[in-house]
Amino acid sequence: MTRDDHVRRSGPPIPGEDLRSYAPIGDGRTVALIGLRGQVDWLPIPNLGSLPVFARLLDDDTGGCIELEPVGEYEVSRRYVSGTNVLRTTFTTENGRATVTDALVTGVAGRLPWAELARRIDGVTGEVAFTWRVRPGTALGTASPWVQESREGPIIRSGATSIAVVGSDHGPRSTKRESEPQITGRFTATEGSRHLLVVVATHDEPIHLPDPAIVDEGIDRTIANWRTWSREFSWEGRWGPHVQRSALALKLLIFSPTGAIAAAATSSLPENPRGGKNWDYRFAWVRDLAYTAHALVQFGLREETHAAISWLLRTIRRNGPDLHIFYGLDGDVPNEVREYDVAGWRGIGPVVTGNPAQGQLQLGVFGDLFAICRLYVDAGNVLDVATGRMLAEIADRTCDLWRNRDAGMWELPELQHYTSSKMGCWQALGDAVHLAEAGQVAGSADRWRAEQENIRAWVEENCWSEDRQAYVMHPDTEDLDASVLLHAPSGFDRGERMSLTIDALAAELGSGPHLYRYSGMQHEEFAFVACGFWHATALACVGRGHEAIAAMDELVAAGNDVSIYSEMIDSETGAFWGNLPQALSHLALITAAMTIDELT
Fold it and tell me: I want to staple 504 with a disulfide (CB 3.0 to 4.6 A). Which of 126, 470, 485, 530 is the partner?
């Protein structure tokens, strides 16, 4: 975003605000998105996977929001407090300057049992008049908010969610109870003044009204908690600030009650202006967890690594024997997809919860699972007996299933012998043999080794095109697929064929440093952020380090003003599309940085 984008005038909200304007904050249970005007347009309560009580992002009319904005014209800049997911925004008007520090407050011993969004306003120079509004929404049309008066002040109810506002020197003025229940106020920040606006919420339980002075201390404690976590993770290679911010973005997506890792914090943000490709990503994909575990191990973050891997293995056993491609954050297998009668971001629908990819056969997920377990063992850990047995069974199933058609990594309706899926099975069996040789898995290692060799021979014979000089998407096409790039770092191919495939992909699917997912998508959607980082990673793997570094330098500049990435990007304008923050995008950045730093 340019600095011109940071000049704003208070007034009516901007429908479908540019997705680059949002910065996420979180507490390990949920995530709020804060825009450049100081507005919170997305906040599910109580959990990240819950229906959002504040959802103007998808429902401009009745979605609900939390607003805090100077009166009149102003300029705005912002950054995260160093080493944290606490956001600090500076508003400058013709009369003065003030800062707003936003945090989803954490407790003394971890996350709070309620949601506590704290907004601390400090006057810096002169005077800055602020207005604020808390207007809960209809939870995508499933609830009708109303105001209940209590001895402690107004409580807004939206379905089973209770919301209250407390603060200090925050100038509460009115409570509207009829057509649009809301609480509003205004105050003026002067040099040296401090004001606090706190939105507290619970779901299906009593509501705690905190002392504003304790909340003020809680903001500082939250900053200290984040910094303690950041000190535990170490990275001293190239692109350090970008890697650290991506690690912090991933931490926001770790659902602390279980250890699961969400693919994104939002649902239904469209992948193109025509709509239709609007998905709910607030689930835990095995694929994303594999990449996350790799990053967590590299960073030395033992607790998150163990929690995520243990959660996944327990969840697979509980929902077995089939391995699903994603799970709910609480460990269930979500099957329902529900559509809601709201407009969507910029009127682009549908708005949904659930994801239709559940139930697909994706052979590549076997490689993801074994990669997690190998990484965990190679870091000096030991698998339990039940996990060893389960992995042996899954390795045998991989041997039986790899010759089948599947939906591929991109969850396509057309079943094919996707090249990257076969490569994923090759990776799974190689890792299974490695675990067997390490004494962690008892099974038919000779069979796994033989089938791995069969897979390689099949791919080399059927998935390489002499005409394209590239690995193709599947044997029945000359189309290309960027997911093949994942198997340069997996070790399937780091030689001439992969190098030629990189060139073919860049020629057909490249747009600047970015790549589209597969042939034809350049006409249907925007570039897939992760694919650009996969391209840079693969360049390093085939020995083209200088090109990898040049590509990476361009890619890390493509984030928004606080280095957050969405799922897709308009390579011409830099506009964000798809859900955000997107775990796969940030994971791809981290993996690229680590791989390039190691190999160049």
Answer: 470
